[in-house]
Amino acid sequence: xxxxxxxxxxxxxxxxxxxxxxxxxxxxxxxxxxxxxxxxxxxxxxxxxxxxxxxxxxxxxxxxxxxxxxxxxxxxxxxxxxxxxxxxxxxxxxxxxxxxxxxxxxxxxxxxxxxxxxxxxxxxxxxxxxxxxxxxxxxxxxxxxxxxxxxxxxxxxxxxxxxxxxxxxxxxxxxxxxxxxxxxxxxxxxxxxxxxxxxxxxxxxxxxxxxxxxxxxxxxxxxxxxxxxxxxxxxxxxxxxxxxxxxxxxxxxxxxxxxxxxxxxxxxxxxxxxxxxx
Amino acid sequence: xxxxxxxxxxxxxxxxxxxxxxxxxxxxxxxxxxxxxxxxxxxxxxxxxxxxxxxxxxxxxxxxxxxxxxxxxxxxxxxxxxxxxxxxxxxxxxxxxxxxxxxxxxxxxxxxxxxxxxxxxxxxxxxxxxxxxxxxxxxxxxxxxxxxxxxxxxxxxxxxxxxxxxxxxxxxxxxxxxxxxxxxxxxxxxxxxxxxxxxxxxxxxxxxxxxxxxxxxxxxxxxxxxxxxxxxxxxxxxxxxxxxxxxxxxxxxxxxxxxxxxxxxxxxxxxxxxxxxx
Amino acid sequence: xxxxxxxxxxxxxxxxxxxxxxxxxxxxxxxxxxxxxxxxxxxxxxxxxxxxxxxxxxxxxxxxxxxxxxxxxxxxxxxxxxxxxxxxxxxxxxxxxxxxxxxxxxxxxxxxxxxxxxxxxxxxxxxxxxxxxxxxxxxxxxxxxxxxxxxxxxxxxxxxxxxxxxxxxxxxxxxxxxxxxxxxxxxxxxxxxxxxxxxxxxxxxxxxxxxxxxxxxxxxxxxxxxxxxxxxxxxxxxxxxxxxxxxxxxxxxxxxxxxxxxxxxxxxxxxxxxxxxx
Amino acid sequence: xxxxxxxxxxxxxxxxxxxxxxxxxxxxxxxxxxxxxxxxxxxxxxxxxxxxxxxxxxxxxxxxxxxxxxxxxxxxxxxxxxxxxxxxxxxxxxxxxxxxxxxxxxxxxxxxxxxxxxxxxxxxxxxxxxxxxxxxxxxxxxxxxxxxxxxxxxxxxxxxxxxxxxxxxxxxxxxxxxxxxxxxxxxxxxxxxxxxxxxxxxxxxxxxxxxxxxxxxxxxxxxxxxxxxxxxxxxxxxxxxxxxxxxxxxxxxxxxxxxxxxxxxxxxxxxxxxxxxx
Lengths: 278, 278, 278, 278
Hints:
Four copies of one chain form a homotetramer.
Chain A (H helix, E strand, L loop, with lengths): L1 E13 L3 E5 L9 E11 L4 E5 L6 E7 L2 E13 L2 E3 L32 H8 L6 H14 L1 E2 L10 H7 L1 E2 L1 H14 L4 E8 L9 E8 L2 E5 L10 E7 L8 E4 L2 E12 L12 E3 L2
Parallel strand pairs in A: 8-9
Antiparallel strand pairs in A: 1-6, 1-15, 2-5, 2-14, 3-6, 4-5, 7-16, 10-11, 10-13, 11-12
Helix pairs in contact in A: 1-4, 2-4, 3-4
């Protein structure tokens, strides 16, 4: 079992009043047990939490006045993945997919699966279906896209990444998702706190694909062990789970993410197991 | 009160087995009362209905064998809109938006509100907020985009329509939605049976924007009276509410939509009232 | 030696006056000897010929009145390619390229070599330079892009084709050109009359790459023998050598291209030789 | 008459050998008389000049070894524009355009006039033709596009600028050119040394449109007086006249452009005259 002390510090300069919709708190479920948790806002303003009934992503909303705004979230989390043998995990025929997964078959802003359908079929259509096929997509993305920070923007989407072949974890995830959807595998975008991320960055972006009867985690980026990623948000793509959607004139002045092992934790390691944490 | 007899006939040739996810049945709620309804599939196969808990859109799923497939939906619907004075309907501050509306603020596959933010602000940012601002967006779209059948494809999105200024009702709706979202007004894509559509076409696409405390209908296309549109599906954009999402080798051989006045119905007329039917 | 009887018939309905810039006449040079040639316009209007000094492409300009317009070009052409051993043909270092070839290194409307640079380097960067590398690019394009008529439009460009992997000869050519330019190989778009085109279509689009000290022809589409293609226009991409650029309200009512063997001609065959005809 | 002392200093770090194609030297013609000129390269390498026969743009080519490379160009230039009354300058009917201008009617990499045709017609189609129409396009671009440094990249094109409405002088020029071409006005991209550029930047990008019987200069950006701009390069768009096209692993370490009034010069002023310098 893994135990992490997590924290996220965000600082903003507000030229006027602004509304924030934050997605920085970890999902609470049987696999992610939060033993301690704190969310501070400076100056103090009321906050309101919304838990999405499907994804259980937690959104914090607040309205802040012009001036400085500092946000700090910290938590201690016990993380235990559902672990399975990849060879035993099948794709689900469309006829048997739960209705809630439909939306994750459709194209979205940053995952234009409709435009990438032929490419997906050509590259992966003949592979045996199952967990291994999604893993093969991840390997392909890792092998074809170069990780270079600062080369892409918040407007970059899978369609561009397929051609331009450069990006960061967000782009790797979007392309993987688009390919999965093009093959009728429900896939969604996930963000989380990743232990041992190298290079250390901010929130990590990865992928969940619906296989067997649950959402399995995949990481086409492979820069951190999957067993060390604590899930925060899941959505159709990055548009849905930005750590901070801001409505108003705000400039970020600080961002600091820390993920440390808590006492008595196992150490996350890279591995090929099938993992799920919901 | 309006009363309509609706029908939709779809014919397909299947070169192999295929799964269908149909969104042709009308939403049932206090404003849309279905007195009779029938769904036939030829050859007979089991169908499964799923009602989206939020939108109440109804999806029919079925698995069909290679060969011919004919689908026929028909219904008699009483339609009564919630009617209000546009001048009395305000935009909702982000801080007060219901959490379920958040997703309709974010960009989606065919409504790239992130890319259209400056254009939206320049054109509509200074207008007084409220129902009239969304109506002004509709007028702008009507005035700047030419209706020409066959000029766009299922891959056309708001970003392209903003520049190329040509399209069909689907494109008018996507562009309107993108502008609304860029102004922090939740907006969603709606499809329906439209009485008096000129030119007669297939399902009509239009827009719902969240104002006051409900989803009001708007029609940038203005080719049919809004009071004569029976709602079928709502989603983030056309990707979510295709009348037929098909997984397998199917070719459409027939499509026929009919919307007739039933006895004792009022006659839908164009008007400037604020309307909602959910 | 090949001898062809060529013809091209074009019919238009003009709703008003229109200017035409036609690029249907074959290039005249030492490799393409025109023994007979005729250009008819009905109704009679004055025409003006312009020969581009670099490409020797021939443009016919005319101004036509509203009504019907019929154009007919026919020619008898002896075609003899410069033939060489592909293994003997090297790429030219940038430092030694003739200045006139520079423009064919730069990205153009339908050949976004800047956006495809990484893909080109990853796929072809490690191949030994020379005629064989361009041939390898052609094979890759043939292998990755599916030929399906009617799937692309006059707005489709190499960037889209790289991802969507479907198109016609025009699209095959654009993608090949973009890859060549990304590797610093000057490449240009060529149109011509192709003997034995299967399926028979209109003008054929192919590629010329500057290697050794001349422009060698390549055909990523491979639907007609290269020895049977009579060159008409060359330019940066399809924008430069449309068979008819029309300024005014014209609708095409007829298009007929014929390419027949003249007496005493050899029969064009597929082969792997390096070919040039300028 | 204007007299300027110009200079351009460029520094590069080369991780390996690289070829440079420089377009930093001013055009020499009757309107731009160069009294002194010097081009230094450190370390010394042979350079080769190529003057494009049509545009008279001057390209310097050199091959440099790994290590540091410093380039310095300086010149003293007398600049005298052809000046005319805008009201007297007509557009040229397509039938009368010189053949060399055709290529500037076609879409290019960064000026997708084909995609912007409807927008151009809607906005400018009804304006009286002539110099004033191109000036109106410039005003529209200035009014709709916000100047913000760092918002666009070398991949940004007119199509994007039309929608995203932000950019730098390069983007203003591309959009203006695309609109002109869509209206059948030949237009090309120009770069130059601009006196009094505010904010001071690097080379200035502006527009030349073919009207009357010559190329008139336009500046949609309006950040420097047109009478104080010394022409360097002209081409179909920025792809053709980059100040440095580099083939090899080079990183720019320095860029300094200076444009000073020489003794006895008039002072450039903003004005509405029609200007040409070729």
